[in-house]
Amino acid sequence: DAVFNQDIDMIRRAMEEVSHEDFDRAVDAVVSAEKVYVVGTRSSSALATFLSYYFGLILDDVHHLNVASEAEIFEQMIRIGKGDAVIGISFPRYSKKVVKAMRFASDVGAKCIAITDSPVSPIAEAADFLLLARSGIASFVDSLVAPLSLLNAFIVATAIRRKADVAEMFRRLETIWDEYGVYEKVDEKTN
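Given the sequence above, the corresponding structure tokens read:
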């Protein structure tokens, strides 16, 4: 119960602390970007994977950066430019790889969106837009429910801005999924 209540409190605080102006401008930056890069390491890699998956469905050119080494990050970002956006996700302990990726993107003129816990987070320095959500620690586990909730809102807001394209894409996907038997059908009467 204590963990659930802590998570509920962190989501509530994220709702109060996130800048609606930065949120809207971050959505605009992603929707108008030629390419979108998403980077997160350690426990934040799960968040980066989640965001990349859904953005990959609703945006044209999304790159989930593999962060095995710093050299690989720069190799994957070599074509980033002014028309692009990078989303860096990092919570304490902050990843140097994400910090360096954000600095590099900022230096080449890409729009930088930081998803982190504090305005003094090292990834906030390079950010054009700062989206705050606190992570907490329940025992030894990072609680990422508030950042995940923020990502859900970010994905939905982006999909709403691209409503017609997203609706058509999902119609096509449903047809493909049915035709190729991607998902198992469940008989609703027996459940």
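Residues 27 and 169 are 19 Å apart (CA to CA). Try to locate this feature in the token string yourself.
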